[in-house]
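Pilot study result, target chain (126 residues):
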Amino acid sequence: MSSAVPLARRRVPCYGNRMKEQRAWGTRETLAEAVDHRVDRVTVQPGERLSLQRHRQRSEHWHMIAGRALVSVDGQEVELGPGDSVNIHCGATHRVHNIGDHPVVLIEVQRGDSFGEDDLERLADD
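Predicted structure:
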């Protein structure tokens, strides 16, 4: 039986009643959501990277849990590993690229007025 939802955006049941979204680059699981913030667990598979993007209505904080990543924020690149973190301010271009042999796992804390796709501007995509 086929699903009407493409694989790149498929939501599957996860722990408790949370949902995990399958993406071409890995998964995104929402851990907590409120009016002023959202917390996601993001897993990026080896060799994959997210779109170069920016948000106008939210900032993000990424805290690395596992793996090695090359993170770009406003054109500046830094390599991050477990325990490292980076702040991404509203309007900053950003991207994470898994440069290792194991999945990158990071916790993303979003703060602002909008946490949906309507506040996502993709600037470059693979």
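One observation from the pilot: The chain has a mean pLDDT of 85. A full batch analysis is planned for the follow-on phase.
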